[in-house]
Structure formats: C-alpha cells, structure tokens
C-alpha cells in the first residue's frame, strides 16, 4: 500500500526563487538542500518513503513576500511529467485583488490543473468568513468559495497559529470556518492543523458536526497527535494525513510518516487517514486533466 501526504510545502529547483529560499531558511529552519531539489529528486524521495503522491501548497502570500498567483501555475508546469505524484494547491489573495482579477486567476489556475485552493488567514490577514455582510462583505472571497464549490475543488483553510514573523494569528480561530461550512454546503473544506495549539477543541467540534469539514492533521508532531486529539478515532472517516514538510520541525518526510504510522489507533482507522480519505478528497494532477 502506498500512502498520501496531503499537505506539504515542497519547493523545486525549477520554480524556487532566491526570495523564497531566504524566507524558508530564516522562518522554516529548512536546509538549502531541501529547498533546491529537482522534481525528479523529490520523486525518488517519495518512492523511498512509499508515498504515492503529495499535496503541494502553492498559494500566494504577499504579506510574507514569497509568492503571487502565478506561482501555482509554475508549479503545475514543473511537475507535469510526474502528474500522478503531485496535487498542486493554488489560491488567490482575495483581499489584494479586484473581482475581475480574482476570477481571472481562479480560471487560469483551474485550467492549469490545480487540485485544490488554499486560504491562509494569518498569512493573508483576513477572516475565512470575510465575505459575510457583518464581516465586511468581501465579494472576492465569496467568489473563491463559489468557484471552488462549482468546480468540485476542495478548499484548505489554515487554522491555528503561525510562527512566521509577519503572521497575524487573530485570524487563525477555526470558529470563522463555521460560516463557510454553513453557507457553502457543497464545498469540501479541509481544516488544516485542526486549530493547533490554541483552538483544537473548537476545530474538533466543528469537524464532528459539519459534514463538509475534513481534518488535516499536518504540522502536529506525530508523537503528540493523541495529546491534541484523544478522540481521533471518532473522526477517522473525516481525517487526512499531512506532514507539512519541509516546514518548521519537519526535516524528513519519510521519518515523519513512519512516526505517524506508529500512533496507537486501530489499523483500519489508520488506513483511512493515510490512504482512503485523502484519495477521496485530493486528486493528483493526472486526475485533473
């Protein structure tokens, strides 16, 4: 059985910029070697780890100064020769673009073949429900959710804190995701990091009661998953594995997976989290052609 790692921040020699390298060295603590591998180098690492495919975050983050909307398209183009090994997660910064620009970039990324959309509230400095009239009525963000719902794209929403120096962590509260789940019932929402470390109980309850919210377990050290989520098996049908590699503290994608596989939960639940569930919600580039 091969595994799925649904949340990584892998970058490639073919697409990385010096600006992104410097940011990752400074803020992630990643090695320069990990940030300058070729696509084929990464495929060899996935083969060794028995990982069938990975999700790669390629969303824009002007506030952090590392990417804009064209980045996702460049990543898709770079991995096309290995389209069955990668799912590219794009996105737009709705509070930085006009309605027309938002629609343009969503359409371009979709045509390129993205597998999902990412919204990172602490990095984008906006609430996930900022489209609501009482939250400012940001129509561009409503367009993002509507586009994703109409085109069958899941939306990752970061919840919990970010240690990056320019992050605004007040936006990381998962309670704001509840509005999105209610207002867009056909949308699959992947709640990244389940609110760790501050808001895990809120995130867990929303995952339990909202049928369209999925738990993304990335960035929680595997040895601490059951500390944060002692009732993990209750959401075993709605949880997916992710490593966050090569993000802060995750320096070996294979070792992180092996540690996760040793979590003492029933094997049938483990298989759902590392295999069955992510295959259902996140398709590789080859399936999007």
From TrEMBL:
GO function terms (MF aspect): carboxy-lyase activity; hydrolase activity
InterPro entries, per database record: ACMSD, Amidohydro-rel, Metal_Hydrolase
SUPFAM superfamilies tied to this protein: Metallo-dependent hydrolases
Domain Amidohydrolase-related, first and last residues per copy: 47-282
Keywords for this protein: Hydrolase, Lyase
CDD domains: metallo-dependent_hydrolases
Name of the protein in question: Amidohydrolase 2
Species lineage: Archaea, Thermoproteota, Thermoprotei, Thermoproteales, Thermoproteaceae
